[in-house]
Write a structure and sequence with these properties.
Distance between the termini: 126 Å
Order of helices and strands: HHHHHHHH
Largest sheet: none
Radius of gyration: 40 Å
Number of helices: 8
Shape: elongated
Number of strands: 0
Structural class: mainly alpha
Helix content: 55-70%
């Protein structure tokens, strides 16, 4: 035999052995993968069973009526505003205790001081200010023009008659 055929035979033998090793490793990896999939599926089933037994956080919210949801949103908004006011008051108090000037950002909310209570029973500044439901729109003139054009034009009265009421009646209709 010549050298070329001997080298070619050895190369083929080496390739067959390597291919057998690769196929064995592939079969081993497929078995491991199947075992992992089974384990993941078992974990998913136990997690789903645990979730089914526990009520979700959204479940009580889903049972609320629309009015109750709106009231909940209003209360959350009010709590947020109260937290901001308390934080501003706390910062202003810290600044006052340290004899520092109070920044303007902390003066956005008025806090009633004991000296502001009138002795003669007249309302204080905070009591005299009433709630304005249109305050947001007054601060945003574009929205005010869009949603309340009759207030922007200075015409605070509602139109008394619609255009259909102002149209003349046909001559043969009873009046």
């Amino acid at each position: 035999m010549n050298t070329k055929s001997l080298l070619l035979g050895g190369f083929c033998f080496l390739c067959v052995i390597m291919a057998a090793g690769f196929y064995a490793r592939k079969a081993e990896l497929e078995r491991e993968q199947a075992a992992m999939r089974a384990e993941i599926e078992a974990l998913a089933q136990t997690a789903a069973a645990a979730r089914a037994q526990q009520p979700t956080d959204d479940e009580p919210y889903q049972r609320l009526t629309q009015n109750e949801r709106m009231e909940l949103m209003r209360l959350r908004n009010e709590v947020t505003q109260l937290r901001a006011t308390a934080s501003a008051a706390r910062d202003a108090l810290k600044a006052a205790l340290q004899n520092r000037p109070i920044p303007e950002t902390h003066l956005t909310h008025h806090v009633v001081q004991p000296t502001e209570v009138a002795a003669n029973g007249e309302p204080t500044r905070q009591e005299a200010e009433s709630y304005d439901p249109l305050a947001f729109y007054r601060k945003n003139p574009e929205l005010m023009k869009r949603y309340f054009p009759h207030l922007v034009n200075g015409n605070s009265q509602q139109p008394s008659e619609s255009p259909a009421d102002q149209a003349p009646l046909p001559p043969d209709s009873p009046q």
